[in-house]
TrEMBL record:
Protein name as catalogued: Asparaginase domain-containing protein
Residue ranges with Polar residues bias: 508-517
Region (Disordered): 508-531
Keywords: Hydrolase, Signal
Enzyme class: hydrolase
Enzyme Commission (EC) number: 3.5.1.1
InterPro entries reported in the protein's UniProt record: AsnASE_II, Asp/glu_Ase-like_sf, Asparaginase/glutaminase-like, Asparaginase_C, FN3_dom, FN3_sf, Ig-like_fold, L-asparaginase_C
Domain SLH: 673-736, 737-797, 799-852
CDD domains: FN3, L-asparaginase_II
Fibronectin type-III domain sequence ranges: 407-516
Record-stated family: Belongs to the asparaginase 1 family.
Domain of life assignment: Bacteria
Length: 852
């Protein structure tokens, strides 16, 4: 209900003054984060430690209280709307809950005690940091707030809390001490939900009236009723019925569980609270004036959210004021006042679509975005990813994502003896499930064991080894080794492998077995498994032939080797060069280390290898963007590849190893070319190649914002793509095709260039057939001609359907297959007569570019 008191309340003044005085002292002496506006983000909060007498079989939950109606004191037992919000202390309220000791070990922290609308954005900054600090110790956090701005507080936490542990926000519509109050039940169920772990990795959730809602989507819909919180269109996540907690819908964040990108870019520890800018909301209505926008801009607003009519419409007066404000650097987000509905990308520069965020949620998203960047395209991208949170499903390709370890995972070594020890590690996560864990002795490169995982009712169990659980319920696996040599140093590594054969990076540990003279001291601290892993001076890894492997080094470079990338054992090394004299002419443009990656054979990979590099966004100019380059040892020059950027990591696919680095390059000048936002490529198997091709101006999309990756390619379209890739400058002579008039104007130059280069010759009837769909064999022949390759001498290709490939094309097909540019489809069939899709065309062109 309302967080404010009724003005005519009469009550005993002495108890109220006493409580107020105690709260004021608590704020002054126990809440240092309120001391100033720009203190460091490392501020510590007096979060209570775990109780010494806690039940080890129960989860540990802390309730962080901010006040609100739940802690309100009413005039009498029937004063549902006449009360003083934020009066009772949370410790007293928790102590009144029956059976609380049966669901969790509960502690409390009184962050504040007032109505939700009385908290500043700086206070929410502190609250988020306090929640993260608490989650370093506790298994879950409950945050109690007033309901007036609960949805905004919850969404702020959802966007900023770094821990994946459960965060549950709750409150009440009636004060604690009236008949029929919902406060005790909401508090009890919130503690139960936080302790259950069922919303781990969901982000922040809101729980009132037994209903579980996603913080991003929930809104308050009624000023008085207890069932006020609803999620329009999408519906609730689940609900609680006494001991039963049911989850029927998930959040997009849950699909990133355990991954580094689960947390948003909004890490509050990297900024001070004074960096949170002024962001306002303007409400649209019939013939609305421009005064609100002008006034907010005059007061220094950096961003404004418009709550427009229908699909975000605003009046002409407001539109004019918005245009003028954009010229002054103000960023706008479009939302609707209707209560639900999605705003899609459109409009001009300076205007961002708010997706399905309501105005108050969009304001929180924009405020945090502006706190971390003033670049329009960066913020727009965040709204399209972090803000949208739409679930992206992969299409048309086998799973290539390796399992990932939970944040902070480590390989543990215990029970160290002369000839034996025990390895243990946490459960890894994967979108299709972890099949097994493989244990390597990395010194010899041998596999010393496998632990197979099975799934029963959603719980992983070890088939061949013992599983033990921590107090919080996290599953661990263990493996015993008993044939080791005494007094010997070993390095062990454990990887997780999913059902598709993708293998994760390894958790490694270096340890020394006990020598004979110290065998009685096997439990001593020196050999207890706490030895720190040896940090290599460079990455040095051996990958068996045909195996998928992902490796990383110093959180600065990541390399993913797909299955089938090479038919022989791969030994790769990677190191950051300390001296780049003679390699880098302008160090100001260098955004990363220069990495030299080497392998033990000269042939290129059969399949592209993914490389991700960490770079420094702070070194980018306003009109610059990062791009990966490789060093051509023959030409002694850097060659741009491009790359896909996620936060401060950029990823490319390559077919060979050499030196790689990230440099700052100028953003494309043509409208829209600096941004790749096709609506139909997210999760597509060719998404990375499509984005790289756009960056290199090889392809473009359609006017409706789509790329249509699975549409077939016409001969005219592919010719334009090919000429764009070759960067041909010469205009070319108009060819003499009998259907010359049918060639579209946008393709005329490219066709003329291709004819002059001898890449296309037309059909026997002297036609070009620009609208005809290009076949795979025609595409292969054109690529071969473009590279000027010598057709393979053998009379047959290695494809299973070789007899279906025309004799004139076999040499061309085999020559580019040997170069790794084109692959077969299922069952190693080339399917020469089939048409190529736009995605396939992009893929072969990007491979061709690496061969130029």
């Amino acid at each position: 209900m309302n967080d404010m008191a009724h003005p005519n309340i009469k009550r005993s003044l002495i108890p109220l003054y006493f409580v107020s005085l105690m709260l004021l002292l608590a704020v002054l002496f126990n809440h240092p984060s309120h001391a100033g506006a720009a203190e460091p983000s490392g501020t510590a909060f007096p979060i209570p430690p775990l109780s010494d007498n806690r039940d080890p079989g129960l989860p540990n939950v802390v309730v962080i209280a901010t006040g609100g109606t739940l802690a309100g004191k009413a005039r009498d037992a029937t004063s549902f709307q006449t009360y003083q919000a934020g009066t009772y202390l949370m410790s007293d309220l928790v102590n009144q809950l029956p059976n609380k000791n049966k669901i969790a070990n509960v502690n409390t922290y009184q962050f504040g005690n007032k109505g939700s609308g009385s908290y500043s954005m700086g206070d929410l900054y502190d609250l988020s940091l306090a929640v993260d600090q608490a989650l370093e110790v506790y298994d879950g956090v409950v945050v109690t707030t007033g309901t007036d701005t609960m949805e905004e507080i919850a969404y702020f936490l959802d966007l900023t809390v770094r821990s994946e542990k459960p965060v549950v926000v709750t409150g009440a519509m009636r004060p604690w001490d009236v008949i029929g109050t919902d406060g005790p039940a909401n508090l009890y169920n919130a503690i139960k939900l936080a302790g259950s772990g069922k919303t781990k990795s969901f982000g922040t959730v809101v729980m009132l009236n037994d209903i579980i809602q996603a913080a991003r989507d929930v809104t308050k819909t009624n000023a008085q009723r207890m069932d006020t919180f609803e999620t329009p269109i999408l519906g609730a996540l689940g609900y609680i019925d006494e001991t039963n907690i049911r989850i029927y819908r998930t959040t997009a964040k849950r699909f990133k569980a355990g991954r580094a990108d689960w947390a948003t870019p909004f890490d509050l520890k990297k900024i001070t609270k004074d960096k949170l800018p002024a962001v306002e909301i303007v409400y649209g209505y019939q013939d609305s004036s421009a005064g609100a926008i002008k006034g907010f801009v005059a007061e220094g607003a950096k961003g404004i959210v418009t709550a427009g009519t229908g699909a975000g419409g605003i009046s002409s007066k407001m539109s004019t004021a918005r245009s003028n404000a954009i010229k002054q650097g103000v960023i706008f987000v479009t939302t609707t006042r209707t209560g639900s509905g999605t705003m899609y990308p459109g409009g001009g520069n300076g205007i961002i679509a708010g997706d399905s965020l309501n105005p108050q949620h969009a304001r929180i998203m924009l405020l945090l975005s502006l706190a971390f960047s003033n670049d329009f395209n960066t913020i727009k991208n965040w709204f399209g990813t972090v803000g949208t949170q739409a679930i992206q499903l992969k299409t048309q390709a086998p799973d290539i994502e390796a399992p990932v370890w939970p944040q902070g995972s480590a390989l543990q070594v215990t029970n160290i003896g002369q000839n034996s020890l025990t390895l243990s590690w946490p459960e890894a996560s994967d979108d299709i499930g972890v099949k097994q864990y493989r244990i390597y002795e990395t010194g010899s490169g041998t596999v010393v064991g496998n632990v197979y995982a099975s799934v029963t009712n959603g719980v992983y169990a070890s088939v061949t080894n013992t599983v033990y659980s921590s107090v919080t319920g996290s599953v661990y696996y263990s493996f015993n080794l008993s044939t080791l040599t005494a007094g010997t140093t070993y390095t062990f590594s454990v990887t997780a492998i999913d059902a598709a054969g993708n293998e994760s990076i390894g958790l490694s540990k270096t340890i020394q077995t006990n020598s004979p003279r110290s065998s009685s001291d096997s439990t001593g601290s020196a050999n207890s498994g706490s030895v720190s892993p040896v940090v290599p001076v460079k990455l040095d890894v051996t990958v068996p032939a045909g195996v998928t492997r992902s490796v990383s080094w110093k959180d600065a470079i990541w390399i993913a080797i797909p299955e089938g990338a090479t038919s022989q054992e791969l030994h790769l090394t990677a190191e950051a060069l300390q001296n780049v004299d003679g390699l880098v002419s302008d160090s100001r443009k260098l955004l990363s280390s220069v990495f030299e990656i080497l392998k033990n054979f000269t042939q290129n990979f059969n399949k592209p290898v993914s490389i991700s590099l960490l770079f420094e966004p702070a070194k980018l100019g306003q009109d610059q963007q990062p791009s990966v380059f490789y060093y051509d040892e023959t030409k002694k020059s850097w060659i741009e590849i491009g790359g896909t950027v996620v936060d401060n990591k950029i990823t490319v696919e390559v077919d060979h190893f050499t030196k790689f680095a990230v440099f700052a390059v100028d953003k494309p000048k043509s409208p829209g070319s600096a941004e790749i936002s096709f609506s139909d490529i997210a999760g597509h198997w060719a998404e990375l190649d499509i984005k790289q091709a756009v960056t290199q101006k090889i392809i473009s999309g359609y006017a409706d914002g789509t790329f249509k990756p699975d549409n077939s390619v016409t001969r005219a379209e592919f010719t334009v793509m090919l000429m764009n890739a070759l960067k041909v400058d010469k205009k070319g002579t108009a060819p003499a095709f009998t259907d010359q008039q049918q060639i579209p104007a946008w393709a005329e130059t490219a066709v003329a260039q291709a004819v002059d280069l001898g890449i296309i010759h037309g059909y026997e009837d002297q036609t070009f057939r620009p609208d005809g769909l290009i076949s795979r064999v025609e595409m292969a022949a054109m690529i071969s001609a473009a590279l000027d390759t010598t057709p393979a001498a053998q009379a047959a290709t290695s494809f299973a359907d070789d007899q279906e490939i025309p004799a004139w094309a076999k040499g061309h097909v085999e020559s580019i297959r040997l170069l790794g540019i084109i692959d077969g489809r299922s069952s190693n069939k080339f399917e020469p007569a089939d048409t190529a899709t736009r995605a396939e065309a992009v893929k072969v062109l990007m491979k061709m570019m690496q061969r130029k």
